[in-house]
Amino acid sequence: MRIEVLVLCQPPVKELVACIIVVYLDHAATSWPKPPEVVARVSDALSSLTANAGRSGHDSSIQSARLVFQTRECLAERFGIARSENLLFVKGCTEGLNLVIKGVLAPESIVAVSPMEHNSVMRPLMRLARQYNVQIEALPADRYGRIDLEASGALSQRVDLVAVCHASNVNGSVQDLIGLREVFSDVPLLVDAAQTAGVLPIDMRPVRSTCTGLPARSERSRPAARLDCWANKSDALRACSWKG
Amino acid sequence: MDGHGVVLFYSTHAVFRLEKALRNRGVACKPIPTPRHLSSDCGTALRFAWLQREVVEAEIERLELDIEAIHRMCE
After folding, report:
1. Which parts of A25-109 are beta strand (E)?
2. Which B residues in the span 14-43 are in contact with A, Cβ-Cβ below 8 Å?
3. Mean pLDDT across the stretch A7-25?
4. A29-38, A153-162, A204-213, B35-44, range with the lowest pLDDT
5. Which residues from A are below 8 Å from B20, CB to CB?
6. DSSP code per residue over A173-237
7. Rounded CA gap, A118 and A45, in Å?
8. Starting at the edge strand that comes first in sequence, how are the strands of the sheet with B44-49 ordered?
9. Pairwise CB contact (< 8 Å): A69 & B44
10. How far is CA A185 from CA A58, A134, A189, A207, A232, in A?
11. How far apart are the first and last CA of chain A?
């Protein structure tokens, strides 16, 4: 949502001056303004020779590949990811969520979701439910949508995936990821961190053998373009064989 | 003259992981185009002084890197 407010102000001079103040209320979806550092970095990349990363051995290509590597290393450190090569960059959070959902689930799978899931999770799940009989179980929650961990324990032995929106884009309620990982310790946990990556601490170090996914839209880090990542490449890549 | 060695990789990511680890240990190394006579791969290899071979091999093992080969290049 973009609101333009026309402000008429009377400066010391005689002319009436009109100026526009933009009140931008859609920051949670697409951040604005971008920090000057981001603008400068993108400008550098576009105005200098930025070659194909990882596809050639000449100096510029090697430099591009090194930047990609450094980015992976930064993100891995930030989110406690042991092996940065398992970070997968995708075009958007929705694409990341779809990759995971379609990569992890199989026909007849059972997926548990919070009551606060975004359409980017529920739409692909509903489609898989119709086409492949995937079962969707709503996790018990309080009036604010926060998952009741104790009551959720009964589901922990029979679900194939748990999908939770870390912070709701509707009411801001935040899920207890640490508690969820303890309750669903043997189940892959898909965290939609669109609203929280870069704002709230997220630690993906494994609890026992659980693999955890984090499609994280880095809007909170305010990149020039959305930089989304998924931190368990092997699961996500299985989606290639099951794209709806 | 000991010459230098070249590590061939399956992924570019592994090149930079090893480069970072070696530089942290003070071992000079440089990503280079994969020599044509060693592989038809169009990617990147890592060159190092052959005298440092043991350190390089130890880092490869420590990082659990999946590499294609290490070649010695005599000058």
Report:
1. 88-90
2. 14-17, 20, 31-34, 42-43
3. 66
4. A204-213
5. 69, 73
6. -B--HHHHHHHTTTS-EEEE-TTTBTTB------STT--EE--EEGGGG--SS--EEES-HHHHH
7. 33
8. B29-33, B44-49, B4-9, B67-73
9. no
10. 45, 21, 9, 7, 16
11. 32
Measured distance CA(A71)–CA(A52) in Å, rounded: 16
Which of A49-58, A85-94, A216-225, B47-56 tops mean pLDDT? B47-56
Per the CB < 8 A criterion, the answer to whether A244 and A107 are in contact is no
Q: pLDDT tens across B32-57, in order?
A: 999 888 877 668 999 999 999 999 99
Compute the distance between CA of residue A53 and CA of residue A37 in angstroms, rounded to an integer: 22
pTM: 0.77
Instruction: Answer for the pair A80, A177: CB distance below 8 angstroms, yes or no.
Output: no
Structure tokens at A71: 């980015």
Q: Is A42 exposed, middle or buried (0-12, 13-18, 19+ CB in 10 A)?
A: middle
Residues β-bridged to residue B49:
B4
